[in-house]
Amino acid sequence: MRVLSVLFAMGAWLGGATVLPGAEAARRSDRPNVVLIMADDLGYECLTANGGESYETPHLDRLAASGMRFEHCHVQPLCTPTRLQLMTGKYNVRNYLRFGVLPRGEKTFGHVFQQAGYATGICGKWQLGKEPDSPQHFGFDEAYLWQHTRRPPRYANPGLEHNARELDFTNGEYGPTLVNDFALDFVTRHRDEPFFLYYPMILTHAPFQPTPDSPNWDPATRGEDVNKDVRHFAAMVAYMDKMVGRLDAKLGELGIRDNTLLIFLGDNGTLGTVTSRFRGGDYRGGKGQTTARGTHVPLVVSWPAVIREGAVCEDLVSSVDLFPTICAAAGVKAPENLDGVSLLPRLRGETAQPREWLYGWYSPRQQSDMTVKEYAFDQKGKLYRTGEYFDLAADPFEQRPLDPVTLSGEAVKRVKKLEAVLEQFREARPKELDETFRAANPSAAPKAKKKKKAA
After folding, report:
1. What is the C-alpha to C-alpha distance for residues 268 and 258, in angstroms, rounded to an integer?
2. Contact 206/270 with Cβ under 8 angstroms?
3. Phi then psi for 71, rounded to 5 degrees?
C-alpha cells in the first residue's frame, strides 16, 4: 500500500509526464469533465430505480432521480464485444477480431479526448490486449488495471497493474476498493483541468465472493475458488453501488460535480445463475444470450449543470451511442465513421429524433468458435439474419420464433424495415478479420446458415 500511495501522490506515469498538444486550450472551466463507469455483468433488473427488488443501489438510484434514466439501453451479451463497441463507437461487425483483443489499429475515445487536451485515465478491468503499452497505445495517460498482462485474483488480496507495473496485495486489500482509490486520486489530481476517466469496474463479475462489508468477509482469502456462492451477488451489487457513490461524493467535495458528466451502464446481462426479483416477478440473468436477458442493461446519466431532475428516456440506445455523446458534450470532434448517435439533445431536454432500430452482430470468437448471431430490432419486433422473427411485445424473451411469411398487417411492415437494416450491413464485415481469426485458429469454421422456409 505504501508503494501505491506514493505512486498516486506523485501522479506517476512510467516514462514521466507528457504535455499533450492542445492541453493549455483544454484548461477552461466551460469544458466538462467526463466520467464513464461500466459495471461488469450487471443487467437492467439489478437497479432499484429500474424496478429491481433484490439489491440495494441507493447511490445509483439517487443519480437516476437527479439525472436521466434510460429504459431501453442494449449492449452486446458479452464483455469484450461491448467494450469494443463502447470504446470505438462501431458495431462489432466492423472491427471485432476475437475475445480479449482490441485491434491495435482502432481509434478509441481515449485517443480523441487525449488529442483534445484532456487528461485521460482508465481504471478497472482491461482484458483487451496483453501488450505492456496497450492502455497508453489506446489513448490513456494513466492506467490502473486488473487483467492487463496477467490474470491474478481480482477481489481479496488481488494482483493489479499501474501502467503495466505489477502490484500484488497480500494484507487483506480488496481489488474494487483499490481501483476506486485510484479513481478518486485521479480526479483529485486533475481537478483544475478537464479530464476523462473511463472506469470499467471489476464488480459484479463472478466469482461471487464476500465483500469487506459482508459479515463473513475474510481478509485472508487467497484466490477465486474460495468461499464463492451466488448468494454473495447481492453484497457485490451493494458494494459496486457504494463505489459509485464514493466517486460521486469526491467530485462534489472537489467542487467539480456540476460540470462533470457522469455515465453509468452495464456491459452485458447478469450471469444466468442469478435470479433476481424484478417488478413483482423472478428475472433470470442471460449473459451470453442475444435476448433482452443478455443485452438489456442499466444506463444512468448525471450532469447537474445540464440535465433536469428525474428525467426518463424511453428511446432505444446502443453502446455505440456513448462515444459520440461524450464527444458532443465536451465539444470534442468525433471520428466521422462512427455507428453511434449522440444522446446530447436528449440530455439537454431538446427535441430529438429517436432511433428507429438497433443492430447486433454478436460472435464470441472464443477459441475456434465463429458462430455469428446477427439481428435488427425495435421495441416491438426482432429479426435475425436466419429469418426468425420475434414479436417482442408478446414474447420479450424470444421463446416463440415466428416465420415472417405467416405475418400480416403492421408486423409485415416491421419485418421489411428490419430486413432493410440487415441488408445495409451485409457487406460491412472486413474479410481480413475472419481470415486473421482462422489463421490463428485452424479448426475455426463458420456454422452452416439455416435456410429460410419457402413461401
Report:
1. 29
2. no
3. -85, -25
pLDDT of 446: 59
CA separation for the pair 244, 236 (Å, rounded) = 12
Pairing of strands 142-146, 119-125: parallel
Phi, psi of 294 (to 5 degrees): -100, -20
Rounded to whole angstroms, the Cα distance separating 234 from 217 reads 14
Rounded (10°) angle between helices 233-253 and 58-66: 50
Question: Tell me, what's the pLDDT at 447?
Answer: 54
Residues in the chain: 455
What is the predicted pLDDT for the residue at 30?
A: 81
Give the pTM: 0.92
Instruction: Calculate helix-pair angle for 322-330, 79-88, nearest 10 degrees.
Output: 30
d(CA 390, CA 49) in angstroms, rounded, equals 28
pLDDT of 9 reads 40
**Which residue is listed with cell 424495415?**
417
User: Positive or negative, the Cα torsion across 284, 288, 289, 294?
Assistant: positive
C-alpha dihedral sign at 365, 209, 175, 259: positive
Task: Write down the number of H helices and E strands in the chain.
Answer: 14, 16
Low-confidence ranges of the chain (pLDDT < 50): 1-28, 448, 451-455
**Phi, psi of 91, rounded to the nearest 5 degrees:** -65, 150
Place of cell 478479420: 433
Return the bridge partners of 199, or none.
37
Q: How confident is the model at residue 3, as a pLDDT? A: 41
